[in-house]
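Task: sequence design from structure.
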């Protein structure tokens, strides 16, 4: 049985951020990761015959100077600057995102555009005062007409449920600071801004809205470079990472304040560990089930749901088919939700300049028809849908592979918030040295930089020996991230807790 000051479950962005920062300060740290080969979780880089691709697309942009500085510290020489270009495909036409007003009006036509404006104005005059669903929230911001055109189909593909079943929390978190007036003013400003303007779109308070950024940085061979480097540096600083190792059980001795954890490797070997602190980025449902003595909140954990994700990477015998990083597919006639163009992320992702490599993304639930389809069936579906959209013929698609990602997205259904609060309260009250971080660890749809910040602040709490920062406020009501030289301090002020006992829920 080996002892560490801190035991980390999961070697994704949040887990490796924690392990890197802890070992940098000389704190003994052990990490377990279920994947036998890859670190980085959904932020890893896949490799198929030297074609590199990202699982979902991860732009490296943050308004937190502290996060940006950490990226450059871990990976100091391999970032390249990339233009951000995304479009929406709807009814056989492409719409720039952010919105370009005259393009949108031209594509929609005078009658449809007029109806959209009237719909928006009606919602401004008569909004839903207490939006509870995704539908309510988006209609308030954009009007019913634009909701049905640009949000409904894609969102229901992603989540596999009606927009009336999805919590407004998800919309408020993912489309924060953006409304129709902001998008329209962005379109006007970008049309008259001096060439080379790269500051992004700003809300009324001057903050850059991440949804509308026009450039970002990216590791030249994909985000896996970042997390491979973080894992290597964790080991160089004295940390241990056990790959191909899954959590089995854990228990906490209140008298000694020590955790005992068991995990098993792929060959069946059982490993035992003890630690003062546990940092978990594992899905909450799995974590709660691992307790030797099941907490009462296991019933709430069982109700949490996850959306799974399939990338079908298709090699096309044509040069680059479009300049976008990705295209959102709002077309209901196909199942694909988004199409990535990997060379637009980095020229080094595609080894042959005469070929294109596209990633067709399908959202599903583990065990449903898409998830259980064979790789051959999924590649055939991807080729067919590329032809339907008009990007390539089936004969031009000469190769492909499939990557499945379990629990890619925590589901924000109408009951998730109460279930998470119930779990959070019980764990905080009974296990003061258990720290939940990251997307699945907190059941929050965090971006990569948000996931990292939850671990950065957790490490500060552990080092201080008290709960200085409430990580549950990251990317919520208080904007933890600010740009500029004061960013690091601003990042801390908005999540700073009032003095309280370690482990007390906020």
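Answer:
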């Amino acid at each position: 049985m080996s002892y560490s000051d801190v035991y980390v479950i999961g070697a994704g962005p949040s887990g490796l951020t924690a392990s890197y920062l802890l070992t940098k300060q000389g704190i003994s740290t052990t990490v377990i990761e279920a994947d036998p080969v890859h670190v980085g979780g959904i932020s890893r880089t896949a490799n198929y015959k030297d074609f590199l691709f990202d699982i979902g697309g991860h732009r490296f942009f943050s308004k937190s100077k502290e996060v940006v500085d950490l990226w450059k510290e871990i990976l100091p020489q391999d970032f390249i600057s990339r233009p951000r270009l995304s479009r929406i495909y709807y009814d056989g036409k492409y719409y720039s995102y952010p919105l370009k007003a005259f393009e949108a009006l031209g594509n929609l036509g005078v009658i449809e555009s007029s109806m959209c404006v009237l719909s928006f104005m009606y919602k401004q005059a008569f909004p839903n005062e207490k939006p509870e669903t995704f539908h309510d929230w988006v209609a308030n911001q954009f009007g019913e007409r634009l909701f049905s055109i640009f949000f409904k189909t894609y969102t229901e593909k992603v989540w596999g449920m009606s927009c009336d079943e999805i919590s407004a929390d998800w919309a408020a978190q993912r489309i924060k600071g953006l409304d129709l007036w902001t998008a329209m003013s962005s379109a006007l400003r970008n049309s008259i801004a001096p060439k080379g303007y790269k500051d992004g779109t700003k809300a009324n308070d001057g903050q850059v809205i991440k949804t509308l950024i026009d450039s970002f940085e990216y590791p030249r061979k994909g985000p896996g470079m970042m997390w491979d480097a973080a894992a290597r540096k964790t080991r160089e600083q004295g940390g241990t990472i056990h790959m191909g190792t899954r959590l089995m059980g854990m228990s906490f001795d209140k008298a000694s304040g020590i955790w005992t954890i068991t995990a098993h490797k792929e060959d069946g070997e059982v490993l035992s560990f003890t630690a003062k602190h546990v940092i978990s980025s594992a899905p909450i449902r799995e974590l709660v089930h691992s307790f030797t003595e099941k907490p009462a909140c296991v019933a709430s954990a069982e109700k949490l749901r996850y959306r799974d994700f399939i990338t079908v990477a298709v090699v096309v015998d044509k040069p680059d088919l479009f300049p976008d990083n990705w295209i959102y597919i709002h077309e209901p006639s196909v199942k694909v939700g988004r199409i990535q163009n990997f060379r637009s992320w980095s020229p080094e992702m595609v080894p042959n300049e005469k070929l294109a490599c596209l990633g067709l993304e399908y959202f599903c639930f583990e065990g449903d028809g898409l998830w259980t389809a064979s790789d051959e069936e999924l590649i055939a579906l991807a080729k067919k849908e590329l032809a339907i959209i008009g990007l390539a013929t089936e004969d031009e698609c000469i190769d492909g592979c499939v990557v499945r990602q379990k629990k890619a997205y925590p589901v924000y259904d109408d009951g998730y918030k109460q279930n998470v609060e119930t779990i959070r309260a019980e764990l905080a009250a009974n296990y003061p040295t258990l720290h939940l971080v990251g997307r699945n660890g907190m059941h929050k749809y965090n971006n990569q930089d948000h996931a990292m910040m939850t671990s950065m602040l957790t490490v500060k709490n552990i080092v201080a020996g008290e709960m200085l920062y409430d990580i549950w406020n990251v990317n919520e009501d208080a904007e933890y991230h600010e740009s500029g030289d004061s960013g690091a301090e601003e990042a801390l002020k908005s999540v700073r807790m009032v003095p309280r006992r370690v482990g007390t829920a906020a």
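Residues 191-212, 477-489, 498-506 have pLDDT under 50 and may be disordered.
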